[in-house]
Amino acid sequence: MKLTFLGQSCFLIETMGKKLIIDPMIKSNPLASEIKVEDIKVDYVLLTHGHYDHVADAQQIATNNDAIIISNFEIVGWYEQKGLKGHGMNLGGKFKFDFGMIKYVVGIHSSMLPDGTYGGASGGFVISNDEATIYFAGDTALTMDMQLIPKTCPPLDLAVLPVGDNFTMGYEDAIIASDFIACDQIVGCHFDTFPPIKIDHEVVRKAFKDQNKTIILPQIGQEITV
Ligand code: NI
Ligand code: MN
Questions:
Q1: Which ligand is nearest to the CA of 123?
Q2: What residue ranges of the chain have pLDDT lower than 70?
Q3: Is the pTM of this model over 0.70?
């Protein structure tokens, strides 16, 4: 499974011959100006919740690629009304797609679509197949529910956790989350895009290292293979 970081919480995922993008906000992210939305080729668009910094380019990417949007029932319904294709899920449910299993898991966060429409419950995705199992937490607080992931999903090879604080958990809570999910290989996201979520990379890396954990704070365009 290969991940490419495209800024904020957006990753391109290449696995089992398919391409997925999660939480695309590229054009309105000045840090990601090198990435051309028009050039993105995907089969699926995964959305953890309805906030603008996660869905900004979803419609364009899904339309360009005739891609299937995977998200909660409310968000998928909103895109289906615009003529796009989707697969709606809800918290705790899993479904086997042609690239592997997705479980849509609890996130503690709000969710509203850009036009003010209710965006359903915010969540995260555990993607598992023969290549790897990765948890994308989406925007979330630290929550005890994360302890259910190792009990209900295959062992995690990697977890993508928000670390920017203010709108989500910060790095201290992400270290506790790493214990809850039984995964010491962490990729940070949701940092540096806006002033309130700027982080000191050295402080964060040291805090993880002190707990014998690894965190990658990816540069935009950086590839991570699991
Ligand atoms: Ni959010
Ligand atoms: Mn966000």
A1: 1
A2: none
A3: yes
